[in-house]
C-alpha cells in the first residue's frame, strides 16, 4: 500500500510541469520579428514559416499595441497557434525606434527569457511594412533569406556587423562598452542589402558606419573572417588572419592607447602589375586612414564601440569610469600601427 502511494506521489510530481506544454504542431515559431515605433504606439511583424509538405513560404502577421507584449498577445489571440519566440533568430527595428533607444526592449527580453539572448539585433533603413513585403516576395526565394543573411555558415559577410541581444544588453549597462548594429534594407537584385551599421551609445543610435568602415571595425574587433579589401584600384586582398595588441597608459593625466594591428593577407587579383611592396604600403595606409576616421567619429559622439575604456579600468575608480564616455574618451590619444604580411599571391606572379 505504501509503495502504491509513493508511486502515485512520484508520478504526480513528474507530471505536474507538463500540462501547460503545447504540441509543436500547435505552436507558431517565427524566425524574425520586426518592431516599429510611431507616436507612442508599437507595430510588431512576425515572420512565420508556413508548415507545408515542401516547407516553403513565409507568413507575415502584424499587429499594433501600446506595448510590444500587447501587440504580440493580439497576434497570438487571433492566430490558430500559440506564438513561441524561443526560436526567434533576428529582431529588426526601424530607425525611429533605434534612435529613441533599445534599453527597455532589451531589458524586457532578458527578463522574460522568452527570446534567446543569442538572437541578432538589426536596424532597418526603410519602413518595416515595405521591407517585409519585399523580402517575402516569392521571386526572392523561399522566405528564409532574413535568417540565412546573418548566419556565419551561410550568407554572413565581414562587412556586416554581428551583435546578439546579450551584447547589446551589456553595452547598455556598461561604462566602457558600446555596440554597432547592422543596417539593412530590401535589395534590388537581391532580397536584402546591407547599407552599413549603426553606432549605439547606451542603446541609442547616434551615428553610422559605411560597409567599408564596418569591415575594418570587425577587423579591429577580431572578427574579420576572411574579409576582402580593395587597395586603391591596384589589387584585392583577402584577410586570412588578424590579431591586435594594445598598450594603455596615462600621459600627463590623459589616456593614451598604442595599438598594433597584425594582418596576414592573400592577394586575390591585381591590376597593372603592382609590386608586393606597393600593395603592402597602400593597404597599410588605407587601413590607418579608415580606422582613424572611425576613431574620430566615436570620439565625437562619445560611443566606445571598440571597448577602449576596458584597457584603462585598472587606472580609474568606479566614479571615474562612470564619466569615461564624456570625460576621457574624447581625450584619448590613439596611436595605430598596421603591420601586414602578404602570405602568398595564389596563382598571381607579382614583382617583388
UniProtKB/TrEMBL annotation:
The keyword Membrane applies. Residues 20-185 form the Spore germination protein N-terminal domain. Keywords: Germination, Lipoprotein, Membrane, Palmitate, Signal. It is a lipid-anchor. Residues 196-346 form the Spore germination GerAC-like C-terminal domain. InterPro entries: GerAC_N, Spore_GerAC-like, Spore_GerAC-like_C, Spore_GerAC_C_sf. GO terms for biological process: spore germination. It is found in: Membrane. One of its GO terms (cellular component) is membrane. Belongs to the GerABKC lipoprotein family. NCBIfam families: spore_ger_x_C. This is Germination protein, Ger(X)C family. It comes from Paenibacillus catalpae.
